[in-house]
Design a protein that fits this description.
Radius of gyration: 21 Å
Number of strands: 0
Largest sheet: none
Shape: elongated
Oligomer: single chain
Distance between the termini: 68 Å
Length: 94
């Protein structure tokens, strides 16, 4: 398999950080650009969009594959159970 990052000057770690930051958090393209500028990474918001369109499906498929293989914690999709304290007791209604 060929390296999908071969035509880009940035490192794969930076590309992954940018795409996952945009997908994971409710940020606009310009917000991602500003956050990366604070970290010393100078990229344009259009670069974020380009990387998201190009690498987003690849990263999503990788995450799905890890979930199917069981590499991700099995508890991540489980619903939280309701915890009751000692003073809570169900009262039957008549």
């Amino acid at each position: 398999m060929k390296n999908p990052f071969r035509y880009f000057d940035s490192s794969p770690e930076v590309i992954r950080l940018v795409v996952m930051m945009y997908v994971r958090f409710p940020l606009s393209l310009r917000n991602v650009e500003d956050l990366l500028a604070e970290r010393g990474i100078d990229i344009c918001h259009e670069t974020v969009r380009l990387w998201w369109n190009r690498f987003g499906p690849m990263f999503a498929a990788e995450i799905r594959r890890k979930r199917v293989d069981g590499s991700v914690s099995p508890n991540c999709r489980r619903r939280p159970q309701r915890l009751t304290s000692a003073d809570e007791e169900p009262i039957p209604l008549l």
